């Protein structure tokens, strides 16, 4: 049986990723490793810190010790730590947002990125620019923070979170060719955006699809 270890920085990414793995890789066994202090520490510092990167390394090393076949990093805020961890962990690691960034870069020149926290927005923008450069594409990125949405979600007001994020997306659609939702926790909004005239990309579906491709390439 294939074993997938998923590293989370909070509980909100567990369910959407679980659903995608159940749909796309139903035979897999999933180990969820959750530390909600990671994102809190990144937000306090305003950026990824060496201490957080070291803890990510520790969790991924533990996943390797558990004999996981592959590791999925579920949080864009700490995604850049994976580039460091890959020097020390031999188990293949997939970033949840890498396939989404590549898809966005291939769709259009004007890319909008929406996040509810700046610590996710900035690394997502850097990843999109990196993927665009790899594809030889010239892009313009427009960044938006959905102010107050993250705090609403933390307080348990999911409806308020959703309305703030949808309003931010709606205001951005006239300016860009594609919108990227920078956090996996925002993916559940996609079915509510059917009237939006441009593609809105979220990471769980494409991230797990990339995970499935990586597993196939290992066989």
TrEMBL record:
<protein>
    <recommendedName>
        <fullName>Asp/Glu/Hydantoin racemase</fullName>
    </recommendedName>
</protein>
<dbReference type="InterPro" id="IPR015942">
    <property type="entry name" value="Asp/Glu/hydantoin_racemase"/>
</dbReference>
<dbReference type="InterPro" id="IPR053714">
    <property type="entry name" value="Iso_Racemase_Enz_sf"/>
</dbReference>
<dbReference type="GO" id="GO:0047661">
    <property type="term" value="F:amino-acid racemase activity"/>
</dbReference>
<comment type="similarity">
    <text>Belongs to the HyuE racemase family.</text>
</comment>
<dbReference type="Pfam" id="PF01177">
    <property type="entry name" value="Asp_Glu_race"/>
</dbReference>
């Amino acid at each position: 049986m294939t074993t997938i270890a998923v590293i989370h920085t909070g509980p909100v990414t567990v369910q959407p990723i679980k659903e995608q793995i159940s749909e796309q890789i139903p035979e897999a066994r999933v180990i969820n490793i959750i530390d909600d202090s990671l994102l809190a520490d990144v937000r306090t510092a305003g950026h990824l810190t060496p201490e957080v990167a070291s803890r990510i390394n520790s969790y991924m090393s533990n996943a390797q010790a558990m004999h996981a076949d592959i590791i999925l990093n579920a949080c864009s805020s700490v995604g850049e730590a994976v580039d460091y961890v890959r020097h020390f962990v031999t188990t293949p690691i997939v970033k949840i947002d890498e396939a989404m960034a590549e898809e966005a870069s291939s769709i259009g020149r004007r890319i909008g990125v929406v996040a509810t926290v700046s610590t996710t927005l900035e690394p997502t923008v850097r990843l999109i620019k990196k993927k665009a450069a790899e594809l030889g594409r010239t892009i313009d990125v427009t960044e938006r923070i959905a102010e107050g949405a993250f705090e609403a979600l933390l307080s348990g007001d999911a409806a308020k979170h959703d309305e703030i994020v949808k309003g931010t997306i709606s205001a951005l659609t006239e300016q860009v060719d594609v919108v990227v939702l920078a956090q996996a926790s925002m993916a559940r909004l996609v079915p509510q955006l059917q009237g939006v005239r441009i593609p809105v990309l979220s990471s769980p579906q494409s991230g797990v699809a990339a995970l499935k491709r990586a597993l196939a390439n290992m066989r």
